[in-house]
Amino acid sequence: MNNPLLIQGGMGIGVSNWRLARAVSSAGQLGVISGTSLDGVLVRRLQDGDPGGHMRRALASFPFRDAARHILERYFVPGGIKRKHHYARSPIFTIKNNDSLNALNVAANFSETWLAKEGQAGFVGINYLEKLQLPNLSSLYGALLAGIDYVIVGAGIPLEIPGILKKLAKNLPANLRLTVENTEKNESFFSHFDPSSLFGKKLPSLKLPKFLPIVSSNLLASLMTKKATGPIDGLIIEGHVAGGHNAPPRGKMVLDESGEPVYGSRDQINTEKLKELGVPFWMAGSYGEPEQLESALASGAAGIQVGSPFALCRESGIFPELKKRIIETVMRGKSHVCTDPNASPTGFPFKVMRLIDTISEKSIFESRKRICNLGYLRQLYKKEDGSIGYRCPAEKTEVFENKDGVVNEGTPGKRCLCNALFATVGMPTEYDDGYTEKAIVTFGSRLDIVRKLLKKKTDFSARDVINYILKGL
Ligand SMILES: Cc1cc2nc3c(=O)[nH]c(=O)nc-3n(C[C@H](O)[C@H](O)[C@H](O)COP(=O)(O)O)c2cc1C
Hints:
The protein has a domain at 6-318 and 456-470: TIM Barrel (Alpha-Beta Barrel). The protein has 18 helices and 15 strands. It is globular. By secondary structure, the chain is α/β, with parallel strands linked by helices. The strands form 4 sheets. It has an 8-stranded parallel beta sheet with strand order 1-11-10-9-8-4-3-2. Helix 1 packs parallel to helix 5 and helix 6 packs across helix 7. It binds flavin mononucleotide. Residues 9-12, 15, 34, 36, 127, 129, 154-155, 214, 238, 242-244, 284-288, 305-308, 311, 442-444 line the site of flavin mononucleotide.
């Protein structure tokens, strides 16, 4: 497997869908699907009637037939649910294993991977967030079942993933140490996944994929190469101008007059030091210009990872009307992306594009009831009785506080990214009182490439993005 020059960023939820990854992969670069919340994506697509029959086609190849049948019986609605967006939700992940949820999640990750790889020989990767721990073991197993080529993990320090991949690729049980607040020193909690207890003893043989963590500093790059539970196959080095979540600035968080984190010289990457680590690396974060690829290669990188331009191409999962609105805003030179230190419940800064009728607008955000009903970003904490509780800083402040959550000046600004990101890909939750969840749009800081790609047209394809970036080579 030769190293790709270009890695298309994994963008959740459902922005980097199988169509986008497939288009990039069949053009000879690394197409990446987002593995975030795929259980929810699958059940919503099935309740939308599975237009084109793609999910049913993928599920027909899922090796565990009973599980696939059960999922279809539970969630597939021919022609789509009558009350659009009044979706039945998949259960929320907890520390206790829920076999039917695990099976659903395995099938969802299998299906997305299977569709991205269907009928073409290019390489496909899947992106997970380290912060979003509870679904990760069953997610990884689902992707392995469909022959994923690369696993890419960001938003955290994924030291344990290489060891877990080795176990799961041999169909062995695996544990993942969970971040639980209020625990004593030396006290650990784990999530556990055992393929054979879920699917029986007859399991297919699996391939070990390559593993690429996403890090933001030389320090973390070095830590990953030295302390991970197995070898890593490369590093993606993501700067703070990238779309999605960003690492906080090193040292004390200082905000500028517009309330954005100030990054300084300690946040700069030293590529000479990276080279000394002896693993290939890819630069990411507003790297979409051909000259930037050339300079990355000249500094010793194997290539670049690019997100934002792919998020706006024809194949991406962003809801078409919203995509059109974003493109118009960019073309009018009116797009404004800020780094919001508070928006994300994860505590990481998050890039937000200001756009009408999205929760970037104060009034739209404040008209939403602060409920947590998808729960992917919930924090785990140890309760007084020793059991595990779940809380999200974006839920109602009193509820969060009653769960011993620490409320500070950033808490009121926390957005429910789970619901907003489902809305961004056209699958919002709609409630009985008529309220429909609104979208949130995240992009990297520089979108000039989009203007160049759109010079004479109204939209562009993933292949246009690739041809533009690779044109100098
Ligand atoms: C819409 C969007 C969603 C993203 N979601 C994720 C994600 O779920 N996981 C992740 O590791 N990175 C995520 N990213 C970051 C991209 O994968 C990529 O590294 C980054 O966008 C590169 O910077 P660029 O957008 O300036 O090209 C996201 C970026 C965008 C634009």
